[in-house]
Amino acid sequence: MTVTRRNIFRHFPDLRAIFLWAFLLSLFSLAIRQSVSIDPDFWWHLKTGQYIAQTRIIPHIDQFSFTKTGAEWVSHEWLSELATYLSFRLGGWVGLLLLFGSVITAALGICYWRSDGKPFIAGLTTFMAAAASAPLFGMRPQMFTLLLSSVFIAILDRYLKGNKGRPLAFLPLVMLMWVNLHAGFALGPALVVLYLAMAAIEGNKNQIKPLLITLAGCVAVIPLNPHGFRMFSYPFETLSSHAMQSLIQEWLSPDFHQFRFLPLAVLILATFAVIGLSPNRIRVSELLGLLVLTFAALRSGRHIPIFAIFAAPILAKYLVQLSTSQSRVRIAVRSLPATGASVVISLTLLFLPAIVIVRQVVDFNAHQSSYESQRYPSAAVNVIKNQQLQGPIFNDYNWGGYLIWKLYPERKVFIDGRADVYNDAFLFDYVGTYRADPMWRAQFQRFGIQTVVIDPQTPLATLLRHETGWRKMFEDTGAVVFQHE
């Protein structure tokens, strides 16, 4: 019996289906690629998760630093920290990459699902959103906020477009999880308010009451966390902190002189350009949401991913309208029958990102110490341990979390990435000391500093090399260690 080519390939998925899986794998690869550059706060998140897992106690006061021991610590990320540690304990570094890679991919996958023009136009605009958001990706609790924001926007968007309000009932349940995962939960009620304004502008009065009920439900579950009603004020305290808003990079406005923010500029310009060229006028409600979230992204880099997952489906919608109105730029998205050539192309599309993912994971897992030493003072920490250098230790802000993971409980840190634990005055004093301002000696005497581990290129390091009573114990290209004699 002769087997025809049609019989061989007829059950093979067509190019559209393969494209979707290849696209999701590519997003996963991008997420992993960004995650291997370990965020400075990752380390104290990991240590906190370990503490919770071992003691079954959620901390309410600081215990990692000697400068703020006993001060209030709102551990608003306790659930994500526990999930991070358990992933690390069960799967090591591979487990962490899989966890956060999956969270990021799921958030972007929802963005793709909301977009018109599947698979190719939706894939293009979702990739643009991913590229714009990539500087904020990583192994960090904020990724849970990205995912849950994407869920909120998807449900609210479908409701505003005329779907029944039943899915709105899920939002308070999502909010209950969110308030225990990350302080970004404040975005939940904010998004409901935004969609309330959008519904009001569109004159959809019958949609306002269900949205108000949803808003009340989301607000009502906020106290259901280990810190209770304290979580109502905590996000606003963070937003009003002058030190956090002016010293922490991700709270600053994006600097478009940096290449990493170029995809954001492309996404913003492309979105408004396509809307302007589209034969159909944008809905006022869409324009309102787009303007509000564009402002938020330009105000603070931390909000870029939220803008991106909101804007990408709008860009896809008007790009489809533009392409169908111009026959010369029409993009065909029809399904093609499987042939030998299409099967080869499909398998190539599928296996290339899969191979990249495997290589990234294997390389990071096998050479994690090398990745670590590129950004963190691993050799300096070994010197402190081996030579038993005594504290208190003055340390680089970005290395505080790493020192907590490596040295606690034997040694505590001067400062770390929990900026909310340290008040504005303390943070500005720290910056002054780091820059070797005249008050640095007073701060060292106040806390009895005996060991210093900082970047060798800083003004303080230059000063201590020539300061009487201080001896350099170690130096490499990444860190220098001084001991008080």
Summarize the structure.
With 485 residues, the protein is mainly α. It has 21 helices and 4 strands.
The number of distinct β-strands equals 4
Estimated share of beta-strand residues: under 5%
Tell me about the biggest sheet?
4 strands, mixed
Residues in helices, as a percent range: 55-70%
User: Over all CA atoms, what is the radius of gyration?
Assistant: 25 Å
3D shape? globular
Tally of helical segments: 21
How are the strands of the biggest sheet laid out side by side? Answer: 1-2-4-3
The first-to-last residue Cα distance is 91 Å
Topology pattern, helix = H, strand = E? HHHHHHHHHHHHHHHHHEHHHEHEE
Task: Give the class from helix and strand content and strand pairing.
Answer: mainly alpha
Question: Keywords for this structure?
Answer:
485 residues; mainly alpha; 2 domains; 61% helix; disordered N terminus
Descriptive report:
By secondary structure, this protein is mainly alpha-helical. The chain folds into 2 domains: 7-37 and 74-329, no CATH class; 376-484. Helices cover 61% and strands 4% of the residues. It has 21 helices and 4 strands. It has helices at residues 5-9, 15-35, 42-55, 78-113, 120-133, 142-160, 170-178, 187-202, 205-220, 230-240, 242-247, 262-277, 284-299, 304-325, 340-366, 368-375, 378-386, 400-407, 424-434, 440-447, 459-464, and strands spanning 393-395, 451-454, 470-475, 480-484. It has a 4-stranded mixed sheet. A hairpin with a 4-residue loop joins β3 (470-475) and β4 (480-484). α3 packs parallel to α18 (400-407), α4 runs antiparallel to α5 (120-133) and α4 (78-113) packs antiparallel against α15. The longest helix is centred in the N-terminal third of the chain and has 36 residues, at 78-113. It starts with a helix and ends with a strand. The relative contact order is 0.13. Mean pLDDT is 91; it is low at 1-7 and 328-335.
